[in-house]
Amino acid sequence: MVARPEVQERLTPGRCRLTSGAGVENDRWSGKERPDPEAQITVMRADVARVIANGQPLFLFGDNLLVELDLSRANLPTGTRLRVGSALCEVTAKPHTGCGKFAGRFGQQARDLTNSEEFADRRLRGLYIRVVEPGEVGPGDDISVLSRPGPGDE
């Protein structure tokens, strides 16, 4: 769990609240002039982050949730509903490609790899979710798939 109150600032709370208005509690997303609900909460696979970080702290990624979950499009298509701790969330269509800060911290090669067409369906850089119903989440809480869109729904 990571909240980013300011640029370059990271908090790693033991638990936090997820809401549709604020996203992750104490995260700067809600303070933007026009917060994009399609980019409310960033999620990345922890195993991919560990390889890229090469021993550096995982909070450097700035992703709100680092998870042990298959984030591929096949497993979590757009519109998939997830129970994240006690919150209800939904996978959004917006691609999560990282930013210049990602390349600055981990190298352009890492950014190129996570955004390569070859691995696009695996979403190595992660994905975005939005909060449908508020709740709390903390490290070790379950994330479960509640529903996936049917064929043609995506």
Describe the structure.
There is one protein chain. The chain is of the alpha+beta class. It has a single domain (16-147), classed as PK beta-barrel domain-like (M1 Pyruvate Kinase, Domain 3). Helix content is 14%, strand content 25%. The strands form 2 sheets. The chain has a 6-stranded mixed β-sheet with strand order 4-3-7-6-5-9. Strands 2-1-8 form a 3-stranded antiparallel β-sheet, with no helix packed on it. It starts with 15 loop residues before the first strand and ends in a 7-residue tail after the last strand. The model has no long low-confidence stretch (mean pLDDT 92).
Give average pLDDT, whole number.
Answer: 92
Strand arrangement in the largest pleated sheet: 4-3-7-6-5-9
Q: What is the radius of gyration? A: 15 Å
Whole-number count of domains: 1
| CATH H level, superfamily name | PK beta-barrel domain-like
Give the number of DSSP strands: 9
The helix/strand series, from N terminus to C terminus, equals EEEHEEEHHEEE
Tally of contiguous helical segments: 3
How much of the residues is beta strand, in percent?
15-25%
- Can you tell me the residue ranges where pLDDT is under 50 for at least 5 consecutive residues? none
The profile of the biggest β sheet is: 6 strands, mixed
Helix/strand structural class = alpha+beta
- The name of the CATH architecture is Beta Barrel
Q: What is the 3D shape?
A: globular
Helical content class: 10-25%
**Assigned CATH class:** Mainly Beta
Q: How far do the termini sit from each other?
A: 28 Å
**What name is given to the CATH topology?**
M1 Pyruvate Kinase, Domain 3
